[in-house]
Give the backbone structure.
Amino acid sequence: MLSFTDLHGLQVDLSFTKGEFAIEPKHVLVFLKHENKWLCTIHKQRGVEVPGGKVEAGETLEQAAIREVFEETGVHAKNLTWFAEYAVHDKVVFAKTVFTAQFAGQEEIAFDLETAGMVWLTDEEFVNHPQLSFHMQDEGMHKMLEVLQQHEKW
């Protein structure tokens, strides 16, 4: 397990072992790479980041991940695979499950009040984009990218 302090001063624990945290994940993140580019959403306040969000009532983590990717980017995701999870020690501790996914198609969508669009980033842009959200700049994100890049499919 990797423990670090994020850019907002909160303790975060990152694990690549499923079920390591006592708290049930209610948030998701999705790493999707297609044609050597990473799928990102452009959050109007935070900046560029991987798609993700909260699980809605009655949804599984996988259903939430697929829905969030589509709502934030217009991309259809398939073949979700559990990758990691992390716990953020805020006033109320919460956990996120991180998935990898494959590209299954894309539609033009109207972006909502939260997101301003989507972008495909090269490996270099994915770590050096000038408008990366704070989530994309922390030690945990760097560790997840390191582990992802060790897998041949990425």
User: Anything to note?
Assistant: Strands lie at 2-5, 11-15, 27-34, 37-43, 47-49, 52-54, 75-89, 94-106, 115-121. The longest strand covers residues 75-89.
